[in-house]
Amino acid sequence: MVRETRHLWVGNLPDNIREDRIREHFKRYGRVQNVKLLGRMESPSATTNGSANSGVCATVAFMDIKSASKAHNVEHVLDERTLTTEYYEPAAIPSSAGAPSAGSSPAGSGYSGSSSSVNSTPAPVSTSRYHLS
After folding, report:
1. Which residues have a Cβ under 8 Å from the Cβ of 121 and sit 6 or more positions away?
2. What is the rounded end-to-end Cα distance, in angstroms, of the chain?
3. Beta-sheet strand order (sheet of 76-78)
């Protein structure tokens, strides 16, 4: 599960979308640091209309986590398309990839875009070492 960050991955964008339009759409939730278009994502399981074509995707980096959280917890519609959002760590998306991998998705490939706990804290990582003899 990816923890809440100030970075959002946005999917199912219209084909003719531009970075400035994405910035304009998301700035209502807070200050946007940058927007990057990533291109088309093909995923048959990601659509609800049966089409394998799920649109263009992008990343949106907000200046703070609260703004990203507000944007993530709202349903977005742009040009009659329902957008999907997921939190991501910038290192989790290679520049040539279109979407977070299943390992970096908050709940795997069936993620619905909602968050169950906005103020959750990740569990501490154990640093114990085991030696086998």
Report:
1. none
2. 34
3. 32-42, 53-62, 7-13, 81-87, 76-78
Residue type, 131: H
pLDDT of residue 75: 95
Helix H, strand E, coil C: the string for the chain is CCCCCCEEEEEEECCCCCHHHHHHHHHHHCCEEEEEEEEEEECHHHCCCCCCEEEEEEEEEECCHHHHHHHHCCCEEECCEEEEEEECCHHHCCCCCCCCCCCCCEEEECCCCCCCCCCCCCCCCCCCCCCCC
pLDDT tens-place string over residues 28-64: 999 999 999 997 754 433 444 444 456 799 999 999 9
Please tell me the distance from the alpha carbon of residue 126 to that of residue 85, in angstroms, as a whole number: 30
